[in-house]
Specification:
By secondary structure, the chain is mostly beta strands. Helices cover 0% and strands 37% of the residues. The strands form four sheets. It has a five-stranded mixed beta sheet, with no helix packed on it. Strands 1-4-9-12 form a four-stranded parallel beta sheet, with no helix packed on it. It has a three-stranded parallel beta sheet with strand order 2-7-10, with no helix packed on it.
Length: 104
């Protein structure tokens, strides 16, 4: 289920993988590239985003490139996901950090 105003990066949209039973709420942004400040000129670095089965992503979350959100994870509203989230964990904040394990 994907709600209104979800933005999936148009530079490399083919690098987003979404599993079954995923809920992506309104205003979520999923990024698959970033501008590499270590390169002269404009150089985009490409990364993949993997959202595994039964994940819930809260309103206005930003999922940065090169991350994997594990099966059954919950990401709180307004979070900025910059690193992998293990399965069945709850994360939130900016940058997103571990809050607790989810009951399976």
């Amino acid at each position: 289920m994907i709600y209104n105003n979800v933005g999936i990066d148009t530079v490399y949209p083919e690098c987003v993988y979404i599993g079954k039973g995923v809920r992506i709420t309104a205003g979520v942004k999923i990024l698959t590239h970033y501008l590499d400040p270590n390169q002269s000129g404009v150089h985009f670095r490409k990364g993949e985003v993997h959202i595994e089965d039964d994940v819930f992503i809260g309103v206005n979350t930003c999922v940065c490139n090169s991350v994997r959100i594990g099966k059954g994870a919950i990401v709180g509203a307004g979070a900025v996901v910059t690193k992998d989230i293990p399965p069945y964990q709850v994360w939130g904040g900016n940058p997103a950090h571990y809050i607790k394990d989810r009951v399976r």
